[in-house]
Amino acid sequence: MPGPTNAERGRNVRARLLAAAKELIGEVGWNAVSTRVLAERAGVRSGLVHYHFESLQALLRQAALDEMSHMLDATASLLVGAASAAEGVEAVLYELDRYNGTDPASLLFTEAYLAATRDALLHERMSGLMTGFRTSLAAALARSGHRAPEDAASVIMAVFDGFVLHKGLDPELSAARVAPLLRRLTSTDRNGAD
């Protein structure tokens, strides 16, 4: 039986490099990831980093964007599958409750946000991901009859980001504490908070 093709080996190396980058960004910080350390973690020769990616920065950028895209797609599906926008927002909040601010995904996202302040391309692409999610959220709110869906979606996104960020500083912060406030914000009751 023939072994893997060059294309299959290349995809495997790329996948290993991206997985190693995701781990290392959270473990040591964006700026501390070196080509050598990354290659060692991935179990490949360091020259393959630059063979498969135009630069170390491009590899780190892709790893962060892939992880963010995956997480946003998964949470957007919670909005789509919910009976109402309020229930969808609450489901997203409870999903985010599993991030404690010190877990690998939280650290990766925090590092990516910081890196985006210095990397215009990362900033642009992260902004695009966030805009896409915010648009989905605003559409869900509009379908539920919210009077200000775009404004509410912007505030809810800020709450989601702040919630994950602050959980690293306040372990007592929980979805159960924040959910009642978000319920009021997502309410379509004309006597509600919208």
From TrEMBL:
<keyword id="KW-0238">DNA-binding</keyword>
<dbReference type="Pfam" id="PF17940">
    <property type="entry name" value="TetR_C_31"/>
</dbReference>
<keyword id="KW-0805">Transcription regulation</keyword>
<dbReference type="InterPro" id="IPR001647">
    <property type="entry name" value="HTH_TetR"/>
</dbReference>
<dbReference type="InterPro" id="IPR009057">
    <property type="entry name" value="Homeodomain-like_sf"/>
</dbReference>
<dbReference type="Pfam" id="PF00440">
    <property type="entry name" value="TetR_N"/>
</dbReference>
<feature type="domain" description="HTH tetR-type">
    <location>
        <begin position="11"/>
        <end position="71"/>
    </location>
</feature>
<protein>
    <submittedName>
        <fullName>TetR/AcrR family transcriptional regulator</fullName>
    </submittedName>
</protein>
<keyword id="KW-0804">Transcription</keyword>
<feature type="DNA-binding region" description="H-T-H motif">
    <location>
        <begin position="34"/>
        <end position="53"/>
    </location>
</feature>
<dbReference type="InterPro" id="IPR041583">
    <property type="entry name" value="TetR_C_31"/>
</dbReference>
<dbReference type="InterPro" id="IPR036271">
    <property type="entry name" value="Tet_transcr_reg_TetR-rel_C_sf"/>
</dbReference>
<dbReference type="InterPro" id="IPR050109">
    <property type="entry name" value="HTH-type_TetR-like_transc_reg"/>
</dbReference>
